Amino acid sequence: MDRKHGRMGPASPSARPRLSDAPRKELSPSHAHTRSLASLSRRVKRTQLAKPITADLSLQAFLASLPDVLAARDLLQLARCVGAARQSGKLCLLMMGAHPLKVGLGPLICDLIRDRVFTALATNGAAMIHDFELALAGRTSENVAEGLADGSFGMARETGIFLNEAAKTAAREGRGLGEVVGREIVEGGLKFARDSIFACAYQAGVSATVHVTIGADIVHMHPNADGAAIGTATMTDFHRMVSVVGGLARGVVVNLGSAVVMPEVFLKALNLARNLGCRVSGFSAADMDFIRHYRPRLNVVERPTQEGGRGFMLTGHHEIMLPLLAAAIRVELQNRVPSRVGGAGQTGGNRSQP
Fold first, then answer.
1. At the topology level of CATH, where does 58-334 sit?
2. Which run of H or E residues covers position 232?
3. Using CA of residue 263, residue 264, residue 267, residue 269, what is the dihedral sign?
4. Structural domain spans, the chain
5. DSSP letter string over 173-221?
6. Which of 56, 109, 153, 186 could form a disulfide with 147 if both were Cys (CB 3.0 to 4.6 A apart)?
């Protein structure tokens, strides 16, 4: 008893009933019910398994040998979406960060632009920098830690002069930064201009936009950097991006290696295009990166395709995944035979259609 108040006090912990003391019914596997394998569903079938690979295999046979599951299936389905978009004259937008250029994919991207597989290009500011340095000198990607120690990081004179002056020219002419950079690389006769994605886009008449984050790029540290000009030029490119995205219906957008900037720009461009009356739906959206990020998944793949369309997440190293996709696209385009009636295409192979 609680002597002070004349009430029973709380039971001691040892006096409380425990769950382990409650009676339990023993369950024995001997009473488990089994069913025949044929009556149960299975997600993988023998027809989906990979086929053996030989050294003399053709590209088409190699792709057909891939297992028809998960990322291998998505890769081929994305290639079909790109092939269908190209055949029907729909937009195929490539958005990208700088890393694909740093791992040597510029010539491959240029080839796809020249053949109008990608019909629009959008990048961050870092991609513009690496593209210029490769076009000028055939080399890029400095040792940041080494340069940071003595303040020389990012201070290449030619890079700062060329790109900051391009921004001023773009602002003065009322043109976008991507267009002017491409034009200046071509007209400047840079030694390796053929492998420049901006030069290639300019020559092919393909929209190329650069979406700059002020203060994030090395050229912003240079004495000739003009924030007003950079802002004006990249704002012009944002408006061009809105116009491009406004025509994305039944097309394809691929985000290659941009974790933040391009997914954010794309989301705003899509929203503004829809706000201005464009019916942008039914497109395919893919994110390709070596790890999965929050913004690309939501802002490129999931949210924009909620009202119709399809999304892909292909995870792996750019230097492997993009060549695989490019190969699949080439095979897909080769297999598409124009119909004699109506101009529709057919797709070769026995894989399921997207």
1. Deoxyhypusine Synthase (3.40.910)
2. helix 227-245
3. negative
4. 58-334
5. HT--HHHHHHHHHHHTT-TTGGG-HHHHHHHHT-EEEEE--TTSSGGGG
6. 153
